[in-house]
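Hi R.,

Here's the chain you asked about this morning:
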Amino acid sequence: MQRSTMRRTPERPRKVGFGAYRLVVASNGTLHVWGPGGRHEMLSAFADECRTEYDDIAVALRTIRYLLCVINTCLATTPKVMELMIRDVRSARAVYRQYVKARGWTLANGRGPRAGEWVQTGSDALSYENSLTVLALSRLYRFLTNRGEFVERDPMRMDPDKSRLEPGKTRVMTKDEQGRVTRDTDLMFRTPQAGRISPHTKDPFFLEKILAAGDEAGWPLVVRALVEAKGRSGGRDFQLRPMPLYNWLVLGKSDFIHSPGKGSKGKLVNRWRVSSTLKQTLIRLMDETYPEHGGYEGLCRIAKSTNRRGELKAMWIFTIDKKQPVSFSFVNDGWFRPIIEKMGLFADFGDGNDEPVMRWVTMHWLRHELTNTILQRIDESGVSRQDKLVQQILLSKYMGWKSAQAMLEYYGRWFFNKEVDIFIAAQMEASNDNSLPTNFDEVFDADAVTPEEHAGVRKILGGLFTKAA
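And here is the predicted structure, written out as C-alpha coordinates:
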Protein backbone atom coordinates (compact mmCIF):
# COMPACT_ATOMS: atom_id res chain seq x y z
CA MET A 1 0.00 0.00 0.00
CA GLN A 2 1.47 3.33 -1.05
CA ARG A 3 2.28 5.67 1.82
CA SER A 4 0.59 9.04 1.81
CA THR A 5 2.92 11.90 0.94
CA MET A 6 0.61 14.65 2.24
CA ARG A 7 2.38 16.69 4.90
CA ARG A 8 0.87 18.75 7.69
CA THR A 9 0.84 22.43 6.80
CA PRO A 10 0.64 25.42 9.16
CA GLU A 11 -2.99 25.89 8.07
CA ARG A 12 -3.87 22.48 9.54
CA PRO A 13 -3.55 22.80 13.33
CA ARG A 14 -2.11 19.86 15.21
CA LYS A 15 -4.48 18.16 17.64
CA VAL A 16 -3.50 18.62 21.28
CA GLY A 17 -2.54 15.23 22.66
CA PHE A 18 -0.64 13.70 25.55
CA GLY A 19 1.97 15.97 27.02
CA ALA A 20 -0.01 19.19 26.62
CA TYR A 21 0.20 19.56 30.40
CA ARG A 22 3.34 18.13 31.98
CA LEU A 23 4.76 17.95 35.47
CA VAL A 24 8.13 19.57 36.21
CA VAL A 25 10.12 19.10 39.42
CA ALA A 26 12.28 22.12 40.25
CA SER A 27 15.75 21.86 41.78
CA ASN A 28 14.42 23.01 45.16
CA GLY A 29 11.79 20.23 45.18
CA THR A 30 8.73 22.30 44.27
CA LEU A 31 6.34 20.99 41.65
CA HIS A 32 5.13 22.95 38.62
CA VAL A 33 2.62 22.14 35.89
CA TRP A 34 3.39 23.59 32.47
CA GLY A 35 0.90 23.74 29.63
CA PRO A 36 0.44 25.35 26.21
CA GLY A 37 0.17 28.81 27.81
CA GLY A 38 3.11 28.43 30.17
CA ARG A 39 2.95 27.68 33.88
CA HIS A 40 -0.58 26.83 35.01
CA GLU A 41 -1.04 28.52 38.38
CA MET A 42 -4.00 26.51 39.66
CA LEU A 43 -2.63 23.08 38.74
CA SER A 44 0.81 24.06 40.05
CA ALA A 45 -0.70 25.05 43.38
CA PHE A 46 -2.57 21.75 43.46
CA ALA A 47 0.63 19.82 42.75
CA ASP A 48 2.50 21.69 45.47
CA GLU A 49 -0.24 20.99 47.99
CA CYS A 50 -0.18 17.29 47.11
CA ARG A 51 3.58 17.33 47.66
CA THR A 52 3.16 18.73 51.17
CA GLU A 53 0.19 16.53 52.06
CA TYR A 54 1.61 13.14 51.11
CA ASP A 55 4.63 11.88 52.99
CA ASP A 56 5.74 9.79 50.05
CA ILE A 57 6.78 11.89 47.04
CA ALA A 58 6.04 8.94 44.76
CA VAL A 59 2.40 8.93 45.84
CA ALA A 60 2.09 12.66 45.16
CA LEU A 61 3.71 12.37 41.74
CA ARG A 62 1.53 9.43 40.81
CA THR A 63 -1.64 11.30 41.82
CA ILE A 64 -0.70 14.38 39.80
CA ARG A 65 0.37 12.39 36.76
CA TYR A 66 -2.91 10.50 36.63
CA LEU A 67 -4.76 13.79 36.88
CA LEU A 68 -2.73 15.22 34.00
CA CYS A 69 -3.47 12.06 32.03
CA VAL A 70 -7.18 12.78 32.43
CA ILE A 71 -6.75 16.40 31.38
CA ASN A 72 -4.59 15.61 28.36
CA THR A 73 -6.89 12.82 27.18
CA CYS A 74 -9.91 15.11 27.33
CA LEU A 75 -7.97 17.93 25.67
CA ALA A 76 -7.37 15.67 22.69
CA THR A 77 -11.12 15.47 22.06
CA THR A 78 -12.81 18.56 23.49
CA PRO A 79 -10.17 21.17 24.29
CA LYS A 80 -12.54 24.09 24.88
CA VAL A 81 -14.80 22.17 27.24
CA MET A 82 -11.86 20.76 29.15
CA GLU A 83 -10.16 24.13 29.50
CA LEU A 84 -13.33 25.50 31.08
CA MET A 85 -13.36 22.55 33.45
CA ILE A 86 -9.79 23.27 34.48
CA ARG A 87 -10.64 26.85 35.36
CA ASP A 88 -13.97 26.06 36.97
CA VAL A 89 -14.37 22.44 38.00
CA ARG A 90 -17.86 22.24 39.44
CA SER A 91 -17.68 18.51 40.00
CA ALA A 92 -15.11 15.77 39.59
CA ARG A 93 -17.82 13.71 37.92
CA ALA A 94 -18.06 16.09 34.98
CA VAL A 95 -14.34 15.72 34.29
CA TYR A 96 -14.55 11.97 34.77
CA ARG A 97 -17.36 11.64 32.23
CA GLN A 98 -15.25 13.44 29.63
CA TYR A 99 -12.30 11.19 30.43
CA VAL A 100 -14.37 8.02 30.13
CA LYS A 101 -15.87 9.22 26.86
CA ALA A 102 -12.44 9.93 25.44
CA ARG A 103 -11.10 6.52 26.48
CA GLY A 104 -14.17 4.72 25.13
CA TRP A 105 -14.82 2.83 28.36
CA THR A 106 -18.16 1.09 28.83
CA LEU A 107 -19.63 -1.36 31.28
CA ALA A 108 -20.99 -4.80 30.53
CA ASN A 109 -24.55 -3.46 30.07
CA GLY A 110 -23.38 -0.87 27.55
CA ARG A 111 -23.84 2.28 29.60
CA GLY A 112 -21.00 4.58 30.52
CA PRO A 113 -19.63 4.34 34.05
CA ARG A 114 -20.47 6.87 36.70
CA ALA A 115 -17.91 8.76 38.71
CA GLY A 116 -16.28 6.55 41.29
CA GLU A 117 -17.29 3.33 39.57
CA TRP A 118 -15.09 0.43 38.56
CA VAL A 119 -14.55 0.18 34.82
CA GLN A 120 -14.01 -3.12 33.02
CA THR A 121 -11.43 -2.66 30.26
CA GLY A 122 -10.91 -5.68 28.06
CA SER A 123 -10.07 -8.75 30.08
CA ASP A 124 -9.22 -6.81 33.23
CA ALA A 125 -11.95 -7.35 35.83
CA LEU A 126 -10.92 -4.28 37.83
CA SER A 127 -8.95 -1.35 36.57
CA TYR A 128 -6.26 -0.13 38.96
CA GLU A 129 -5.76 2.87 36.72
CA ASN A 130 -9.42 3.78 37.12
CA SER A 131 -9.21 3.81 40.91
CA LEU A 132 -6.22 6.15 40.83
CA THR A 133 -7.99 8.40 38.33
CA VAL A 134 -11.05 8.73 40.53
CA LEU A 135 -8.85 9.44 43.53
CA ALA A 136 -6.95 12.16 41.67
CA LEU A 137 -10.15 13.85 40.52
CA SER A 138 -11.64 13.69 43.99
CA ARG A 139 -8.48 15.22 45.40
CA LEU A 140 -8.63 18.06 42.85
CA TYR A 141 -12.30 18.63 43.63
CA ARG A 142 -11.54 18.97 47.35
CA PHE A 143 -8.63 21.30 46.58
CA LEU A 144 -10.82 23.65 44.54
CA THR A 145 -13.56 23.53 47.16
CA ASN A 146 -11.16 24.65 49.87
CA ARG A 147 -9.87 27.47 47.68
CA GLY A 148 -13.41 28.63 46.94
CA GLU A 149 -12.76 28.87 43.20
CA PHE A 150 -16.17 27.65 42.13
CA VAL A 151 -18.30 29.89 39.95
CA GLU A 152 -22.04 29.69 40.67
CA ARG A 153 -21.50 26.94 43.18
CA ASP A 154 -24.68 25.11 44.08
CA PRO A 155 -25.71 26.67 47.42
CA MET A 156 -28.19 23.91 48.18
CA ARG A 157 -25.81 20.95 48.09
CA MET A 158 -24.48 19.86 51.41
CA ASP A 159 -20.87 18.84 51.77
CA PRO A 160 -20.79 15.06 52.37
CA ASP A 161 -18.21 15.61 55.10
CA LYS A 162 -20.84 17.53 57.08
CA SER A 163 -23.43 14.79 56.79
CA ARG A 164 -21.95 12.90 59.74
CA LEU A 165 -22.24 14.03 63.33
CA GLU A 166 -19.92 13.45 66.23
CA PRO A 167 -21.42 11.36 69.07
CA GLY A 168 -23.62 13.39 71.38
CA LYS A 169 -24.30 16.24 68.96
CA THR A 170 -27.53 17.20 67.23
CA ARG A 171 -28.09 18.99 63.96
CA VAL A 172 -29.32 22.56 63.89
CA MET A 173 -30.29 25.03 61.20
CA THR A 174 -29.53 28.75 61.29
CA LYS A 175 -30.22 31.64 58.95
CA ASP A 176 -27.97 34.63 58.44
CA GLU A 177 -29.00 38.23 57.82
CA GLN A 178 -29.51 37.59 54.10
CA GLY A 179 -31.82 34.66 54.84
CA ARG A 180 -29.35 32.03 53.68
CA VAL A 181 -29.60 28.69 55.44
CA THR A 182 -26.65 26.75 56.83
CA ARG A 183 -25.98 23.23 55.55
CA ASP A 184 -25.74 21.60 58.98
CA THR A 185 -29.02 19.73 58.73
CA ASP A 186 -29.89 16.07 58.91
CA LEU A 187 -31.67 15.97 55.55
CA MET A 188 -31.20 18.05 52.47
CA PHE A 189 -34.02 20.51 51.96
CA ARG A 190 -34.86 23.25 49.51
CA THR A 191 -35.68 26.84 50.48
CA PRO A 192 -38.18 29.00 48.58
CA GLN A 193 -35.32 30.99 47.07
CA ALA A 194 -34.05 27.82 45.37
CA GLY A 195 -37.10 27.82 43.13
CA ARG A 196 -37.17 24.06 42.64
CA ILE A 197 -38.42 21.95 45.53
CA SER A 198 -40.62 23.37 48.25
CA PRO A 199 -40.28 22.12 51.84
CA HIS A 200 -41.85 18.83 52.80
CA THR A 201 -45.01 18.99 54.91
CA LYS A 202 -44.45 15.49 56.35
CA ASP A 203 -48.25 15.25 56.52
CA PRO A 204 -49.62 12.06 54.91
CA PHE A 205 -53.07 13.70 54.57
CA PHE A 206 -51.87 16.88 52.86
CA LEU A 207 -53.78 16.14 49.65
CA GLU A 208 -57.01 15.30 51.48
CA LYS A 209 -56.81 18.65 53.31
CA ILE A 210 -56.29 20.53 50.04
CA LEU A 211 -59.21 18.73 48.38
CA ALA A 212 -61.45 19.41 51.38
CA ALA A 213 -60.52 23.09 51.35
CA GLY A 214 -61.22 23.28 47.62
CA ASP A 215 -64.61 21.61 47.98
CA GLU A 216 -65.48 24.10 50.71
CA ALA A 217 -64.40 26.97 48.44
CA GLY A 218 -66.62 25.61 45.66
CA TRP A 219 -64.08 24.93 42.94
CA PRO A 220 -65.21 23.27 39.68
CA LEU A 221 -65.04 19.51 39.43
CA VAL A 222 -62.46 19.70 36.63
CA VAL A 223 -60.11 21.64 38.94
CA ARG A 224 -60.52 19.10 41.72
CA ALA A 225 -59.92 16.23 39.28
CA LEU A 226 -56.71 17.78 37.93
CA VAL A 227 -55.34 18.61 41.39
CA GLU A 228 -56.17 15.11 42.61
CA ALA A 229 -54.59 13.58 39.50
CA LYS A 230 -51.34 15.44 40.09
CA GLY A 231 -51.34 14.69 43.82
CA ARG A 232 -52.09 10.98 43.52
CA SER A 233 -50.20 10.08 40.34
CA GLY A 234 -47.19 12.44 40.48
CA GLY A 235 -47.39 13.46 36.83
CA ARG A 236 -46.11 16.76 35.48
CA ASP A 237 -48.43 19.40 34.07
CA PHE A 238 -47.68 18.71 30.40
CA GLN A 239 -48.14 14.98 31.05
CA LEU A 240 -51.66 15.22 32.52
CA ARG A 241 -53.55 18.44 31.73
CA PRO A 242 -53.49 18.31 27.87
CA MET A 243 -54.04 14.54 27.58
CA PRO A 244 -56.97 13.26 25.47
CA LEU A 245 -59.38 10.56 26.55
CA TYR A 246 -57.64 8.16 24.15
CA ASN A 247 -54.54 8.11 26.37
CA TRP A 248 -56.64 7.12 29.38
CA LEU A 249 -59.43 4.86 28.15
CA VAL A 250 -57.69 3.16 25.21
CA LEU A 251 -53.96 3.16 25.96
CA GLY A 252 -54.28 3.07 29.74
CA LYS A 253 -57.33 0.77 29.98
CA SER A 254 -58.82 3.22 32.56
CA ASP A 255 -56.08 2.27 35.05
CA PHE A 256 -53.27 4.47 33.68
CA ILE A 257 -52.86 7.74 31.80
CA HIS A 258 -50.25 7.41 29.06
CA SER A 259 -48.29 10.58 28.37
CA PRO A 260 -45.04 11.62 26.67
CA GLY A 261 -41.91 11.60 28.80
CA LYS A 262 -39.06 14.09 28.89
CA GLY A 263 -37.25 12.59 25.90
CA SER A 264 -33.51 12.21 26.37
CA LYS A 265 -33.76 13.39 29.98
CA GLY A 266 -36.06 10.58 31.06
CA LYS A 267 -38.51 7.97 29.84
CA LEU A 268 -40.01 8.33 26.38
CA VAL A 269 -43.45 7.31 27.69
CA ASN A 270 -44.88 7.59 31.20
CA ARG A 271 -47.79 5.58 32.58
CA TRP A 272 -49.36 7.50 35.47
CA ARG A 273 -51.32 5.34 37.87
CA VAL A 274 -55.05 6.08 38.32
CA SER A 275 -55.92 5.10 41.88
CA SER A 276 -59.39 3.97 42.89
CA THR A 277 -60.30 7.32 44.46
CA LEU A 278 -58.98 9.26 41.47
CA LYS A 279 -60.92 6.98 39.13
CA GLN A 280 -64.17 7.77 40.94
CA THR A 281 -63.48 11.49 40.56
CA LEU A 282 -62.74 11.09 36.85
CA ILE A 283 -65.94 9.09 36.36
CA ARG A 284 -67.94 11.94 37.90
CA LEU A 285 -66.07 14.38 35.65
CA MET A 286 -66.88 12.37 32.52
CA ASP A 287 -70.57 12.13 33.47
CA GLU A 288 -70.64 15.91 33.92
CA THR A 289 -68.58 16.85 30.83
CA TYR A 290 -69.85 14.38 28.19
CA PRO A 291 -73.52 13.61 28.99
CA GLU A 292 -74.38 13.48 25.27
CA HIS A 293 -72.04 10.48 24.90
CA GLY A 294 -73.53 8.65 27.86
CA GLY A 295 -70.93 9.78 30.38
CA TYR A 296 -68.18 7.41 31.46
CA GLU A 297 -70.02 4.25 30.40
CA GLY A 298 -70.68 5.61 26.93
CA LEU A 299 -67.06 6.70 26.51
CA CYS A 300 -65.90 3.21 27.52
CA ARG A 301 -68.09 1.71 24.79
CA ILE A 302 -66.52 4.09 22.28
CA ALA A 303 -63.04 3.06 23.50
CA LYS A 304 -63.89 -0.61 22.84
CA SER A 305 -65.15 0.13 19.35
CA THR A 306 -62.48 -0.32 16.70
CA ASN A 307 -64.18 2.11 14.34
CA ARG A 308 -64.93 4.90 16.83
CA ARG A 309 -62.08 4.88 19.31
CA GLY A 310 -60.22 7.43 17.19
CA GLU A 311 -62.81 10.03 18.21
CA LEU A 312 -61.33 10.04 21.71
CA LYS A 313 -58.11 11.59 20.39
CA ALA A 314 -59.96 14.90 19.97
CA MET A 315 -61.77 14.72 23.33
CA TRP A 316 -59.98 15.99 26.43
CA ILE A 317 -59.97 14.64 29.97
CA PHE A 318 -59.67 17.99 31.75
CA THR A 319 -61.77 20.49 29.82
CA ILE A 320 -64.62 22.96 30.31
CA ASP A 321 -65.73 23.91 26.80
CA LYS A 322 -64.81 20.53 25.21
CA LYS A 323 -62.77 22.41 22.62
CA GLN A 324 -59.44 22.60 24.44
CA PRO A 325 -57.87 21.52 27.73
CA VAL A 326 -58.35 23.73 30.75
CA SER A 327 -55.57 26.32 31.07
CA PHE A 328 -52.86 26.04 33.69
CA SER A 329 -53.35 29.62 34.91
CA PHE A 330 -57.07 29.01 35.46
CA VAL A 331 -56.41 26.01 37.70
CA ASN A 332 -53.19 27.12 39.40
CA ASP A 333 -53.63 30.89 39.80
CA GLY A 334 -57.42 30.95 39.90
CA TRP A 335 -58.01 28.18 42.43
CA PHE A 336 -55.01 26.22 43.71
CA ARG A 337 -52.83 29.10 44.94
CA PRO A 338 -55.61 31.03 46.73
CA ILE A 339 -56.78 27.86 48.46
CA ILE A 340 -53.24 27.04 49.64
CA GLU A 341 -52.86 30.56 51.01
CA LYS A 342 -56.28 30.50 52.64
CA MET A 343 -55.95 27.13 54.37
CA GLY A 344 -52.55 28.00 55.88
CA LEU A 345 -50.85 24.69 55.13
CA PHE A 346 -47.61 24.38 57.11
CA ALA A 347 -44.34 22.80 56.02
CA ASP A 348 -41.11 21.84 57.75
CA PHE A 349 -38.04 23.65 56.43
CA GLY A 350 -35.65 21.16 58.06
CA ASP A 351 -35.15 22.72 61.48
CA GLY A 352 -38.30 21.31 63.08
CA ASN A 353 -40.11 24.66 62.97
CA ASP A 354 -43.20 24.63 60.79
CA GLU A 355 -43.71 27.60 58.53
CA PRO A 356 -46.69 28.27 56.24
CA VAL A 357 -46.49 27.26 52.61
CA MET A 358 -46.61 30.57 50.77
CA ARG A 359 -48.55 31.48 47.68
CA TRP A 360 -45.53 30.97 45.39
CA VAL A 361 -46.13 27.22 45.47
CA THR A 362 -47.58 25.73 42.28
CA MET A 363 -49.35 22.48 41.47
CA HIS A 364 -45.98 20.97 40.53
CA TRP A 365 -45.24 20.97 44.26
CA LEU A 366 -47.74 18.09 44.59
CA ARG A 367 -45.39 15.86 42.56
CA HIS A 368 -42.50 16.52 44.93
CA GLU A 369 -44.72 16.13 47.97
CA LEU A 370 -45.89 12.73 46.75
CA THR A 371 -42.32 11.60 46.05
CA ASN A 372 -41.13 12.77 49.46
CA THR A 373 -44.03 10.97 51.12
CA ILE A 374 -43.24 7.69 49.36
CA LEU A 375 -39.52 8.01 50.13
CA GLN A 376 -40.37 8.64 53.77
CA ARG A 377 -42.59 5.56 53.75
CA ILE A 378 -39.75 3.51 52.26
CA ASP A 379 -37.33 4.76 54.94
CA GLU A 380 -39.75 3.81 57.71
CA SER A 381 -40.75 0.45 56.21
CA GLY A 382 -38.14 -1.48 58.20
CA VAL A 383 -37.14 -3.68 55.26
CA SER A 384 -33.56 -4.50 54.33
CA ARG A 385 -31.28 -2.10 52.50
CA GLN A 386 -31.55 -4.20 49.35
CA ASP A 387 -35.36 -4.07 49.42
CA LYS A 388 -35.28 -0.31 50.00
CA LEU A 389 -32.97 0.07 47.03
CA VAL A 390 -35.32 -1.95 44.84
CA GLN A 391 -38.28 0.19 45.90
CA GLN A 392 -36.32 3.37 45.22
CA ILE A 393 -35.37 2.09 41.75
CA LEU A 394 -39.00 1.25 40.97
CA LEU A 395 -40.13 4.65 42.22
CA SER A 396 -37.54 6.43 40.07
CA LYS A 397 -38.66 4.45 37.02
CA TYR A 398 -42.28 5.34 37.69
CA MET A 399 -41.57 9.04 38.21
CA GLY A 400 -39.59 9.23 34.97
CA TRP A 401 -36.07 9.67 36.39
CA LYS A 402 -33.06 8.31 34.52
CA SER A 403 -31.81 6.52 37.66
CA ALA A 404 -32.54 6.13 41.34
CA GLN A 405 -29.29 7.93 42.14
CA ALA A 406 -30.43 11.03 40.24
CA MET A 407 -33.75 11.03 42.10
CA LEU A 408 -32.12 10.59 45.49
CA GLU A 409 -29.61 13.34 44.79
CA TYR A 410 -32.44 15.66 43.75
CA TYR A 411 -34.34 15.05 46.97
CA GLY A 412 -31.21 15.22 49.09
CA ARG A 413 -31.21 11.64 50.33
CA TRP A 414 -28.17 10.16 48.61
CA PHE A 415 -25.46 11.21 51.05
CA PHE A 416 -27.58 10.84 54.15
CA ASN A 417 -27.97 7.14 54.77
CA LYS A 418 -25.83 4.94 56.91
CA GLU A 419 -24.31 2.83 54.14
CA VAL A 420 -23.10 5.77 52.07
CA ASP A 421 -21.75 7.51 55.16
CA ILE A 422 -19.66 4.41 55.83
CA PHE A 423 -18.44 4.50 52.23
CA ILE A 424 -17.46 8.18 52.48
CA ALA A 425 -15.58 7.57 55.71
CA ALA A 426 -13.74 4.59 54.22
CA GLN A 427 -12.88 6.57 51.09
CA MET A 428 -11.42 9.42 53.16
CA GLU A 429 -9.41 7.00 55.27
CA ALA A 430 -8.03 5.36 52.12
CA SER A 431 -7.10 8.64 50.47
CA ASN A 432 -3.48 8.38 51.61
CA ASP A 433 -2.76 4.96 50.13
CA ASN A 434 -4.45 5.37 46.72
CA SER A 435 -6.96 2.60 47.30
CA LEU A 436 -10.71 2.29 47.48
CA PRO A 437 -12.61 0.42 50.20
CA THR A 438 -13.16 -3.27 49.65
CA ASN A 439 -16.96 -2.91 49.93
CA PHE A 440 -17.04 -0.26 47.22
CA ASP A 441 -19.34 -2.10 44.80
CA GLU A 442 -21.56 -3.39 47.56
CA VAL A 443 -22.28 0.08 48.91
CA PHE A 444 -22.29 2.34 45.88
CA ASP A 445 -23.42 0.31 42.86
CA ALA A 446 -27.06 1.14 42.10
CA ASP A 447 -27.29 -1.69 39.57
CA ALA A 448 -26.51 -4.49 42.01
CA VAL A 449 -30.07 -5.82 41.83
CA THR A 450 -30.41 -8.95 39.69
CA PRO A 451 -33.22 -9.42 37.15
CA GLU A 452 -34.68 -12.16 39.36
CA GLU A 453 -34.90 -9.73 42.28
CA HIS A 454 -36.49 -7.16 39.99
CA ALA A 455 -39.11 -9.70 38.91
CA GLY A 456 -39.93 -10.56 42.51
CA VAL A 457 -40.77 -7.00 43.49
CA ARG A 458 -42.70 -5.74 40.46
CA LYS A 459 -45.81 -5.25 42.58
CA ILE A 460 -44.10 -3.23 45.31
CA LEU A 461 -44.82 0.09 43.66
CA GLY A 462 -48.56 -0.44 43.73
CA GLY A 463 -48.47 -0.89 47.49
CA LEU A 464 -46.57 2.31 48.07
CA PHE A 465 -49.63 4.43 47.37
CA THR A 466 -52.43 4.82 49.87
CA LYS A 467 -55.47 3.07 48.50
CA ALA A 468 -59.03 4.04 49.27
CA ALA A 469 -60.60 2.24 52.18
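One quick note: The mean pLDDT is 65.

Cheers,
M.
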